[in-house]
Design brief:
The complex is a heterodimer of chains A (570) and B (214).
Chain A (H helix, E strand, L loop, with lengths): L1 H58 L1 H8 L6 H9 L19 E7 L5 E2 L12 H4 L12 E9 L2 E13 L6 E9 L13 E6 L2 E4 L4 H16 L5 E7 L2 E9 L9 E8 L1 H97 L6 H31 L8 E4 H14 L7 E5 L5 E4 L1 H17 L6 E9 L2 E9 L5 H4 L21 H11 L3 E8 L2 E9 L13
Helix pairs in contact in A: 1-6, 2-3, 6-7, 8-9, 9-11
Chain B lengths: L1 H18 L2 E8 L16 E5 L2 E5 L4 E5 L10 E3 L1 E3 L2 E3 L2 E5 L3 E3 L8 E5 L6 E6 L8 E3 L4 E7 L6 E7 L4 E3 L5 E8 L1 E10 L2 E9 L4 E3 L4
Parallel strand pairs in B: 1-19, 5-9, 8-14
Antiparallel strand pairs in B: 1-16, 2-3, 4-15, 4-17, 6-7, 9-12, 10-11, 10-13, 13-14, 17-18
The chains are: A alpha+beta (570), B mainly beta (214).
Amino acid sequence: MMGVVIAVSAIGLYFADASATNEVEQNLQRQFQTQVSGLHQLQEIRHAALVERCRALIRKPRIHAALEDNALDLLYPSAKDELQDLMDDEEQSPADSVQGLRARFYRFLDHDGNLIRAQNPEQAGALPIAEAEQLALPHLPDRQQIGYIPVTGPQGPSLVETIAMPIRSSETSELISAIVLGFRPLGLGGTSNTGIRSGVWVNDQLFISGVSDATRAALTTAVSDAIKQGRSGSSLPAKLDGVRSLLVYTQLNPDSLYPPAYEVCLYPLTELEVRRAHLRWQILGSGALLLFVGLVSSHLLSLRLSAPVEKLAVDSAKNLERRERAEAALESTSAELHRSARFSADASHQLKTPVTVLRAGLEELLARPNLTVEECNELAGLVHQTYRLNSIIEDLLLLSRMDAGRLKLELAPVNLSQLIEGWLDDLSALPDPLQLTIESDFPPRLHVEGEMRYTTLILQNLLENARKYNCAGGKIRIAAHVEDEWVLLTVGNTGRPIPRGAQEHIFERFHRGAAAGNIPGHGLGLNLARELARLHKGDLRLARSEENWTEFEVRFLAVAQPAKPSPVGA
Amino acid sequence: MRLHTVLGFALSFFLAAILARADATLEGHVQLPKPHTAPVMNKRYEIVTKAGVVATDPPLAVVYLAGNFPAPATPAVAEVSQKDYAFSPPLLPIQVGTKVEFPNHDEAYHNIFSYSAAKRFDLGRYRPDEKPVPFVVFDKPGLVTLRCDIHEHMRGAVLVLETPYFVLSDTAGQYRLTGLPAGHYTLKAWIDSKTTLSHEVDLKDGETTHLDLP
């Protein structure tokens, strides 16, 4: 993460630096172009003024006469008056705003482009003849030509910007001469307050003020080399008095017959360096800040993210522990259950035989002829107890099979209505000491999913209870109806209700209600019925037990009525 | 005294006329350059300078008999007037020593001057009815270009010759010189400031010689 941020910062720094450098260089280039184009505009203004002046000049018959009538000796005297206002007036303030439009000298060229010497150079501006010869052109130009010639002035060598304007005959428009005016270079060689220096390169000489000779020589070589390589209007790095600078140059007089001259501008890059350093710090600072913020936020985020994970880890550790405990407990419970189921099964099996033997012995005793009535009744009671014991053993065996998961029902449609009717018949055959009334309300041919044997057992248990826990003159009500996919069977009976606190325990094994004190039973029936109902994919619950009325509800899965009613008691 | 002087002059003139009896005639055709402009019906022409060459347009020739002739005792007087802002005639051939007057027939000022080597002069600005009429005596042979310092388009020329025998050809180049002295001479035809044709000719009294140039 940190590496990525550092890498991104480094890349950002690099690109920002490059773009800043580029931008500054472009700005400088633009500035330079603006300066040069400003200069060019000024030159154009001057040019326009000069064109007009030359047109007026050549309209002067005397100048025309001097040129055309081979009276060159009269040329400069004739031009003197005409050009007087164009000439630099030494007495005038140099700060004159039209300074740039005032010429230092003027000379004429003949129709071959050669210099027409001035007899009295004072009239046309002083210029040594050797320097004046530089004004000559290979031929007369048909348009304005700009040149830069070095001259020796009172303050040492300097540069003069020359403009050669063609002079055409007013009659035939043919070129008859050219006038060359020398000006102080416009806006050149100055040093602005921003430290920008400009100069002019011409003829392998660089005219720039305010630099040492060594610097000038180095710059001259650099510019000469660059120009000789044919690069025009370009820039190159340079050192100016130890300050890294950008050197920009562009030709001042393209397509001129005069030697090419280049405007050379030196921009100190100190500002750029400062800006670059500033930028570098900014980027580094922001990178560091970013890094810091990133670190802090990622830390916070990770804390926040890890909290639930840690909690989860702790929880899972706890859970694991708990689970392990639970599993261990479950295992031991399961083992215990298994053991107990086995024990129940084994015990039931082991018990069944002695009970059978016991009953057989008792029945044998009962068959003896010399028994008294009391003895007979006693023995009959004992025999009855063996039946009861057998029933308990059967129940326990069934439960233990269910507990061990070994009881698998073979489900098939069972005609519940028929089953109930059969049981109601049986019930009416039994002795009825409580004088019970039996009500029933169920549609015929209700079919449920189940195994006949166990479905019967459920029903038997419920009806037995309804009869056992009834009161004298009480009532039993059996009802069944279809609800959605279920068949709901309710068995209700009058009698003391099950106390509220005991209601939740009635389905527990060996639970017997408080009211069951003298009622025969062993506390397995409801438990067995419920387990069986659940094996039927249904359930058994206590629907209500209040105000002398207790009602159980058992639900079975309804099945579509089979085409052929299944046989009863199969 | 006065009478004697007059008689003396008259006698000398008479003698001179006897001695230099000249009645030969020379005529012919000068091959002229093609005109710059389309020929016009009127016979006007003008002076033009092209590539430093002064000529008339349409081209005309000044045909003259070269030789060493004595200057006239009384200088001749000729006239180049300024009329309708033009010199009239535009080209004036004269013998050396001729006095040329420059009357101004326009309603504006004129300032006739010349920078030509043969005669530099500047008459200054003068009014239309300037009296005496400004004049110049041309004392050196050569071509003198006339200009007006006020009207730049005005252009004229005076061809100063060392001979009294000269004539301006017509635009077709035909010329005719009369009253020439017999003898062996060189006939010259000035066409422009750079071109002068010449041919030897023998003239006999009372005869008309035909000579075409070149």
